[in-house]
Amino acid sequence: MPLLSVDSLQVRYGAVEAVRGIGFEIHPGEIVAFLGANGAGKSSTLNALAGLVPVASGRVVFDGTDITHHAPERLAPMGMTLTPEGRRIFGTLTVEENLRMGAYGVSDRAEMDAAWARVYELFPILFERRSQYAGTLSGGQQQMLAVGRSLMSNPRLLLLDEPSLGLAPKIVEQIFELIGVLRDQGVTLVVVEQNVAMALEIADRGYVMSGGRIVSSGTAGDLSQADRLQAAYLGAE
Amino acid sequence: MDLFLQQTTNALALGGTYALLALGLAVVFSIMGLINFAHGELMTIAGYVLMYCGIAGVPFVVSVPLAICASMVAAVLMERIAFRPVRNGSGATMLITSFAVAMILQVLFQNFISARSQAVLLPAFLSDSFKIGGMVIGVNKIVAIVATVVMLIFLDRFMNHQKTGIAMRAAAEDFAVARLMGIRANTVIAGAFALSGLLAGVAAVLWVSQRASVDPLMGFTPVLKAFIAAILGGLGSLRGAVAGGFTLGFIEVYLAAFLPPELQEFRDPIGLCIVVVLLLFRPNGLVPSSVLKAVKV
Prior knowledge:
The complex is a heterodimer of chains A (237) and B (297). Chain A has 237 residues and is α/β, with parallel strands linked by helices.
């Protein structure tokens, strides 16, 4: 059974149709990349899944539950969360407070302790900087905090929107390494990325979006050779 | 010198009350972008509870918590009934809604309680005063200063150490992402209103204990002052609300005390001019909100 299945998902901003009825499935343990040029509808898709923008029509089922019209705050406790584009950490809160907010819905003491241990083990720098205001961290550290904050809720499905955006190449490598580590820890990942080469290197499968539609899909190996990928980016669709 | 110190005590007492009111406005504004002009009516409600308790002979130690609770409950109900339906509306929609709430409550007070000012029975000790050196200080002034300090310490601890308080700060910075964390929008907003009701309730007790009366329109002046204080401090900034409240209190009290008699009738315009001049130099307020997306022209 797929962990997440999406059927004819449509997202509108007023008269603009950002996502035009797409469908896909995510299976447990996968890393799935969403590729495509700016404005292709990738971020809108993730935001709709997370409940940040309303779904105009279609159906989203997570782990057997219809979450199409769920408020965003109900998803983290169910095991699905989004690390939004641009990191959007709480700059006026300390690193520790940011992480504490990530675990907002976790009430079980042991689960909470495990989450702290896991995040501080993955990102020792966050432990070092725990009492510092998050706004004073570097870009790479902020991205680690954003991912760490998402991990505090122990998600089974993590949606990552442009995790490498605006980061130095060395940090980008670390982020992609991290994605692999998370998969090994049992997290299913959906990654929206501009960095196509690295995304396809780490992903199992991918979907290519253009103009709000999925124009191509397949295994990462297939996609790295397909012409349609180029077409989607060059706008030849 | 004694006069100066005595007026400084008065300024701290008045400024503290303004600070509590401005904080109440700021807590709600920082989270949902609403300037709640019905905040003053929360004070009026607390004032009437004090009045009825006085008539019924309820001891002051009981009537004060009752009044504060009434103000909190009224604030939460106000959010649930009036503001939740327009939560996703524009700032202007919410502002007009708050005017409507204020006016409806004023009319209800006028028709069901009394259009005129009512006396509030207060314990005698509040109107006592004592001498330190050459200063004469009213007990009610000391009570106001102590209550303000206690509330500020409580608020600081709540916002920095309680999970709900931290969630309110997170929601003030980025509401959508706060919801992604599992922080429920309704809980945070209801919490912000409860907190603003608490602050309005305490401010009302202090306000009434200086005047010993309540009337249906009593909330208007203090909420207007609190609004000025919140703007002066930096709208949406909690530290700013405190700074603005005290600054406004000092300006008003010092002008009343030290302005020459022939200028006294221009006291309020002069006070507001000082506020405008301060804003000219610090357009985003004394302690601007750190999440303010200021537009520079």
